[in-house]
Design a protein that fits this description.
The protein is mainly β and 168 residues long. 0% of the residues lie in helices and 62% in strands. The protein is elongated and about 60 Å long.
Amino acid sequence: MGGFIRDIPINLDRNIGFGVGLGYAYNNYYTNLFANETADGIEYTVLDKTVSYKRNKVDTHVLEVPLQFRWRTSTASTYKFWRVYAGMKLGYVLGSRSKFVSDDEKFSFKNNDIERFRYGVVLNFGYSTFNIHAYYALNALFKDGVVTVEGDPIEFVPLRLGIVFYIL
């Protein structure tokens, strides 16, 4: 994941502002939801604990546009300061893939059941270079109407927690 955000201060102290940016994210969603490509489309089955596998995931490549309200304790000469940046992130999935790896088999395929337009809320807070990052998607990862072979809707909503490094 990487990108840049343009900071737009809105007061004379330059400690309150907005941020607009552009970024790229590569996301891996490890799950027990097995995706199998068939002639009729993609079938999804929830794997139980008796199935042995090394990896089962969906990955996405996303072009992202963050929009943030920014508050910080910085001054013109202080580079170490507290910050709270809150807002939303819009995204467009450029590509997605399902992959399964076990001791006996390994396969992957392009997954078109992923919702292309992504949006969610984001919060970054911390001190100096190291900051806590949280993102919660407001729409499901899979398109509406995607169900398991049992007929259960798949309502997988991503939550991402991590660390952000700010370089001034």
